[in-house]
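Annual report, structural modelling task.

Input specification for the nicotinamide-adenine-dinucleotide complex:
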Amino acid sequence: MKITIIGTGYVGLVTGACLAELGNDVFCLDVDQKKIDLLNSGGIPIHEPGLDEVVARNRAAGRLQFSTDVAASVAHGEVQFIAVGTPPDEDGSADLQYVLAAARNIGKHMTGFKVVVDKSTVPVGTADRVGAALRTELDARGERLAFSVASNPEFLKEGAAVEDFMRPDRIVIGCDSTPEGDRARELLRKLYAPFNRNRERTHWMDVRSSEFTKYAANAMLATRISFMNELANLADQVGVDIEAVRHGIGSDPRIGHSFLYAGAGYGGSCFPKDVQALERTARQYDQDLLILRAVEQVNDKQKQVLGRKVVKRFGEDLSGKHFAVWGLAFKPNTDDMREAPARVLLKQLLDGGASVAVYDPVAMTEAKRVLELDLNAGELARVRFADSPMDTLTDAEALVIVTEWKAFRSPDFDKIKAALKQAVIFDGRNLFEPEVMAEAGFEYHGIGRSI
Ligand code: NAD
Ligand code: UGA
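The model returned the following structure:
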């Protein structure tokens, strides 16, 4: 099938590359000329395991093209996926300007039937607004062309995006109950058929329920994390090991093991903004989502927990003190620094007067970019970007771990102890066992593990 993807970011690029891998002829559009030039010269703008091979293979096969040509992109696909960003507006609601701009472009250039699919995460009612934007453009041209707007939210995780897209737990699709909606349903059924061969994974529903499902999923996952973080903080007070508790409750199939890891708080481009956007939707209907407000507040506090532990141990005045920091990306296997807990930790340490040496296996370039925005010149001067995890340790009072990269899981503890000024580790991801660390001669501060 001929498919157009509008927006070539994390979701658009992965969707485009993976749909091309299934044999479709995919046109990826972006307004960012630099990004398109990079992709056309064989580069990949993001770190995502396996993506470079899928992109290279399908470009070489002529099934995947990248362009900024709007008219050509609209002409290409009968199915037009909108996968542009929906960042938070000033009030926390989803900013739909990019989605609506993409819709207007389709309306300006279409010459025949189109299925427009909202893949971006968008609030309930957005498909109606996309449809209205298209209709306005068509009316301005005096055209009465048919189209249908469907919803097909994306559930991939960064760091595992290709794997998630190619082996989805479920595919959620919302279509209208109109003749155009039926046509959209048939086209999308055909497009997603390869994913449903062994088991039907598609959940068909109405458009608004599909839009809502995406927010419900992210809000539920964020709630589990904040709930565990809150319990972990209490565990620290009462002498309980949150890891034992996690195993204990997770083995109840009604609870399950996933997304119960207490830590340094959730980051990334999605949970924080989607929790806020859902709260905002509720407020528009005079409803206060109390749980989600708490989820957000707990997370904001949680991002400060590691820094607070450092201050509790070393005092408010950290001037003259140096710390090693491992892990900057908001999670492993990505270079994404959006809402990363490491940014909050670094600000706390630098505010206290400390200096730091930081290391991340892939996010160093992105970290330099965002820290230049977060920090003033004086603070930035106290950050050293190290070449390796071990290179951070010299003269450090303690090691602080923020992201659970595999490369940090089995370090040489003797070397760490020898390099640090004091054998102290703050572990924001509970990578190690407190007893093992005590035996190895470390003072170990996990999250919810003060047993
Ligand atoms: P992103 O910022 O990485 O990419 C968005 C791209 O859209 C950018 O390259 C931008 O230049 C481009 N763009 C903006 N306006 C455009 C226009 N009018 N025409 C063409 N291109 C345009 O964003 P992302 O992380 O891919 O997220 C996209 C959407 O998917 C969001 O709604 C997000 O919530 C959702 N989502 C993201 C993830 C994720 O893991 N990142 C997962 C599921 C859903
Ligand atoms: C999340 C969802 O998992 C995806 O299903 C969804 O498609 C995506 O948001 C989105 O809508 O954009 P992502 O943000 O890429 O994916 O990464 P996650 O693996 O969900 O991690 C998010 C944050 O939660 C990370 O900071 C991670 O460290 C934290 N986390 C995760 C915990 O603190 N504890 C856990 O148990 C799990």
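The chain has two domains: 2-205, 226-445.
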